[in-house]
Amino acid sequence: MFSSVPLPVLLFSVTLIVEVLGWIGNERLASAIYTILHPFSASPHAKQQRQLKRDILQLRVDLKNTSAQDEFASWAKIRRKLDKAVQELENLNAQKSLSLQSFTTTFGRLLWIITTVLPFILSSWHRKEAVFYLPAGWFGSLGWWASLPSAPAGGIACGVWTMACKRTINTIKDAVVDLCAKEIPIATEGAAEPKDASGISSKAKDEL
């Protein structure tokens, strides 16, 4: 599947995916995926939860349209049904919370395999290959370190290339974050000052 992908591109892509997943975080990813998949789950709890939400909405409408003074018996009956449905929904929400914790733990293990084990296997598999070769004499007598631990002399080893990719990706991310942080104050400072009916800003009026 990946045999046609150049090794430098493959390693960079894997490093980028690992870094992005790390930025998002395990809990955030697990919660988002669980929220997306839960409504489509075949679990009877998921279906029961959806039905209870619909029932509660309908019961609240019925309760609002029923007079507690003129139709007290009907109002009390609807109220009991509503309280029971709300209690059942709270119990299901508690079960959902436990299910989410279990899903987060399992997802964390899967994410660890994706972000740690698979890159290690990939680097180990290609450890004796050079990602690419440096022009002769680029680093002089220090060029040997780029091929550590097992790549041919004069080549860039997988581990060295992966570290370079990781450093570059994080540098770009930090630059983008800093740029966005600077743009927000600039936009705020550039906002027009409020003026009164005479067209004089409040700041200018204070100076006068």
Description:
The chain is mainly α. It is 69% helix and 0% strand. The chain is elongated. Mean pLDDT is 81; it is low at 186-193 and 197-208.
In terms of topology, how is this protein built?
Elements: H1 7-24, H2 26-37, H3 44-64, H4 72-125, H5 158-189, H6 202-207
Helix pairs in contact: 1-4, 1-5, 2-4, 3-4
User: Which structural class best describes the helix and strand composition?
Assistant: mainly alpha
Can you count the helices? 6
Strand content: under 5%
- Main sheet makeup: none
Order of helices and strands: HHHHHH
- Total E-strand runs: 0
Q: Any descriptors?
A:
single chain; 208 residues; 6 helices; mainly alpha; 69% helix
Brief description of this entry?
The chain is an all-alpha fold and 208 residues long.
